[in-house]
C-alpha cells in the first residue's frame, strides 16, 4: 500500500518536470556583438526575430542576448544610425554582426542637394531619382486634408492601390506564399502597429514606399512602408 501511495505522489512530479523540460528545450539562447563598419559597438540597436521587433537591445558594448524558438530562421539588427542587417541562424548560438556599406539596405549616396526632389523614408531623405519604384506623398500642410476624420481615411482615399484589412494596410495587393503582406508603419522614425490616435491635422506628410524603394527597411519592408511625419517633430 505504501508503495502505491509513493508512486501516486511521484508520478505527477515526474510528469510536471517532463513538461517543464520540454518547454525549456523549445527555445535556444543566441548571443553576439554588433559593430559598425569602423568596428565600434552599436549601442541600443533593436533585436528582431524573423522580421518582428522585440524588446531586446544591444548594451553599451554592442552585445546582445535573446531567447528564440528553435524554428526561428533569422536574427536581425535594426539601428537608426547604422541601418538594418539580418543573418540566418542555421543552428548557431553565437551570431556576431558587423555593418558595412553592402550590408545595410541603403542606397550608397543619399546626400540631397538643394533643388533635388527627395522622399522621407523615416531614416533619412532618399533622392527621388534613386528610387526604383515610386513613393506617393501626401502633404499634410494642405488644408484640404483637415476634413478627413482619420489618418487611415487620408491614406486610402489619397493613394490608389491601398486597402485596409484586419492585418493592416495592403499596398498593391502585396503577397507572399502565406497570403497578404501588410505594409510597415513608421511614425517619426519609430515603428508602430497602427496610426490610431494621430489626428490628420497633426500630420506634416505621409509617404507610401512600394517595392524596392522600401528595401531600406530590410525584410520588414517586403510589403512596402507607410512613413508618417508629424508636425510636432519640428517644434
Explain this structure:
The protein has 235 residues and is mainly beta. The chain folds into two domains: 97 residues, Sandwich (Immunoglobulin-like); 117 residues, TonB-dependent receptor, plug domain (Ferric Hydroxamate Uptake Protein, Chain A, domain 1, Beta Complex). Helix content is 14%, strand content 35%. The chain has two helices and 18 strands. β5 and β6 form a beta hairpin. The longest helix is centred in the first third of the chain and has 24 residues. It is globular and about 75 Å long. About 13% of the residues have low confidence.
Write the layout of secondary structure elements.
Elements: H1 2-25, E1 27-35, E2 46-49, E3 52-57, E4 63-69, E5 74-79, E6 83-88, E7 97-98, E8 118-120, E9 125-127, E10 135-139, H2 151-158, E11 162-165, E12 168-171, E13 175-176, E14 179-180, E15 184-187, E16 190-192, E17 203-209, E18 225-230
Parallel strand pairs: 1-7, 15-18
Antiparallel strand pairs: 1-4, 2-3, 2-5, 5-6, 8-9, 10-17, 11-12, 13-14, 15-16, 17-18
The CATH C-level name of the largest domain is Mainly Beta
Mean pLDDT: 75
The total tally of domains equals 2
Rg: 23 Å
Total beta strands: 18
Principal-axis shape:
globular
Parts with pLDDT < 50 across at least 5 consecutive residues? 101-117, 121-125, 127-134
SSE topology string? HEEEEEEEEEEHEEEEEEEE
Strand residues, percent: 35-45%
CATH H-level superfamily of the largest domain: TonB-dependent receptor, plug domain
Second rung of CATH, namely the architecture of the largest domain: Beta Complex
Task: Report the helical percentage.
Answer: 10-25%
Q: What is the third-level CATH name, the topology of the largest domain?
A: Ferric Hydroxamate Uptake Protein, Chain A, domain 1
* Structural class designation: mainly beta
Terminal CA distance: 80 Å
The largest sheet has its strands arranged as 10-17-18-15-16
Largest sheet: 5 strands, mixed
Tally of separate helices: 2
Amino acid at each position: 500500500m505504501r508503495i502505491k501511495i509513493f508512486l501516486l505522489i511521484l508520478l505527477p512530479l515526474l510528469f510536471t518536470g517532463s513538461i517543464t523540460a520540454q518547454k525549456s528545450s523549445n527555445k535556444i539562447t543566441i548571443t553576439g556583438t554588433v559593430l559598425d563598419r569602423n568596428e565600434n559597438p552599436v549601442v541600443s540597436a533593436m533585436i528582431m526575430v524573423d522580421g518582428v521587433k522585440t524588446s531586446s537591445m544591444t548594451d553599451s558594448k554592442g552585445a546582445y542576448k535573446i531567447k528564440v524558438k528553435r524554428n526561428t530562421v533569422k536574427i536581425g539588427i535594426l539601428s537608426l544610425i547604422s541601418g538594418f542587417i539580418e543573418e540566418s541562424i542555421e543552428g548557431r548560438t553565437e551570431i556576431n554582426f558587423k555593418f558595412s556599406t553592402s550590408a545595410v539596405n541603403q542606397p550608397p549616396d543619399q546626400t540631397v542637394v538643394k533643388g533635388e526632389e527627395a522622399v522621407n523614408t523615416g531614416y533619412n531623405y532618399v533622392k527621388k531619382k534613386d528610387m526604383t519604384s515610386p513613393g506617393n506623398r501626401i502633404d499634410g500642410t494642405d488644408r484640404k486634408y483637415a476634413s478627413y476624420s482619420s489618418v487611415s481615411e487620408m491614406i486610402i482615399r489619397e493613394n490608389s492601390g491601398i486597402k485596409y484589412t484586419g492585418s493592416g494596410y495592403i499596398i498593391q495587393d502585396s503577397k507572399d506564399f502565406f497570403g497578404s503582406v501588410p505594409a510597415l508603419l513608421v511614425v517619426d522614425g519609430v515603428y508602430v502597429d497602427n496610426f490610431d490616435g494621430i489626428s490628420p491635422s497633426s500630420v506634416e506628410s505621409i509617404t507610401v514606399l512600394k517595392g524596392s524603394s522600401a528595401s531600406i527597411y530590410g525584410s520588414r519592408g517586403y510589403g512596402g512602408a507607410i512613413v508618417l511625419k508629424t508636425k510636432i517633430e519640428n517644434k
